Amino acid sequence: EFGLIYVFPNNPQGSTKKVFLDLRNKVATFVQTGILGLAFHPNYKNNRYIYVYYVYNNASLTGFISRISRFTTNANNPDSALSSSEVVMIDKPVEYPGHYGGKIAFGRDGYLYISLGDAGTGSTGGDLAQDMTSLKGKLLRIDVNMPSGGLNYSIPVSNPFAGNTQGIKEEIYASGFRNMWKFSYDSVTNVMWGADVGEHRYEEINLIQKGKNYGWNMMEGFH
């Protein structure tokens, strides 16, 4: 069901489950929406923080919103996260319904990486993946441990566009993605690989490097 995260026993014979987090009153249920990403803080054992990427159904205002929020697990019940503990990290209205990306994960550097899709604009002229003043169609990197500038996070000084004066979003780590819905680290080399969805001809598996542009919507694969 849309809007529910479950917890279950960590064994092959596990046959029961419990609701870990209930966001049914917030999560959109349209195509490609729902809860898209979940990441545990590296210091979860002590701070009990989890981070969730979901599409918020803000019907009274602008419609769908790509939202990354922090929740806290109940200190007396580790099988339950408190929906009332939500702290919104990033809220971005969806220009067009679709292409939300959705993967979030902490790197070995302790920063939170977030993949946002291009909102479905790449083939319709919107071209947000190449617009560096937009977070859409980008891989983001933020420091959730240090709020700054009125935000619930700060910009790592090692981000490729940190401190720029050209209006480029400083959260951007890499750009030019259509809908990179999954990425992961190689556990040995710490290399990041991203899976980007093609439109007509090619799917992409990209070696993600800081500050690089991966081409969409100017290129799809090698085409």
Could you explain how this protein is built, in words?
The protein has 223 residues and is mainly beta. It is 2% helix and 36% strand. The chain has one helix and 13 strands, in the order βββαββββββββββ. It has one helix spanning 44-47; strands at residues 4-7, 18-22, 35-40, 49-58, 63-73, 81-93, 104-106, 112-116, 138-142, 172-174, 180-185, 192-196, 204-208. The strands form four sheets. The protein has a four-stranded antiparallel β-sheet with strand order 3-4-5-6, with no helix packed on it. Strands 7-8-9-10 form a four-stranded antiparallel β-sheet, with no helix packed on it. Strands 11-12-13 form a three-stranded antiparallel β-sheet, with no helix packed on it. The termini are far apart.
Q: What's the average pLDDT?
A: 92
Whole-Å distance between the termini? 38 Å
The ordered H/E elements are EEEHEEEEEEEEEE
Helix content: under 10%
Which parts are unreliable, with pLDDT below 50 for 5 consecutive residues or more? none
Share of residues in strands? 35-45%
- Major β-sheet, in short? 4 strands, antiparallel
> In which order are the strands of the major sheet placed?
3-4-5-6
Give a brief rundown of this model:
With 223 residues, the chain is mainly β. It is built from 1 helix and 13 strands. The strands form 4 sheets. Strands 3-4-5-6 form a 4-stranded antiparallel beta sheet, with no helix packed on it. Strands 7-8-9-10 form a 4-stranded antiparallel beta sheet, with no helix packed on it.
